[in-house]
Write a structure and sequence with these properties.
Layout: H1 2-56, H2 61-73
Length: 74
């Protein structure tokens, strides 16, 4: 009888642990999705800022690109 009780207790603990993992994984996935969304928004803002600066400058697209590439090579 004691062996069956231990087995049932062990099964119960396993089920509880599995439930915790499922809940935490769902929370983790939601947090990762939120982070990705925020990073995407930040990247979009940065791209808009760069394009606005290029458009407002007196340099052509090619000149700006050359300037960036030359700085990278240095």
């Amino acid at each position: 009888m004691a062996r069956k009780t231990n087995y049932e207790t062990l099964d119960h603990k396993i089920e509880e642990s599995q439930a915790k993992i499922i809940k935490r994984k769902a929370s983790h996935d939601a947090t990762v999705d939120e982070l990705q969304n925020l990073l995407d928004k930040r990247d979009a803002i940065r791209k808009d800022e760069i394009w606005s600066a290029i458009i407002a400058s007196e340099k052509s697209y090619e000149e700006v690109l050359k300037l960036i590439r030359d700085k990278i090579e240095d």
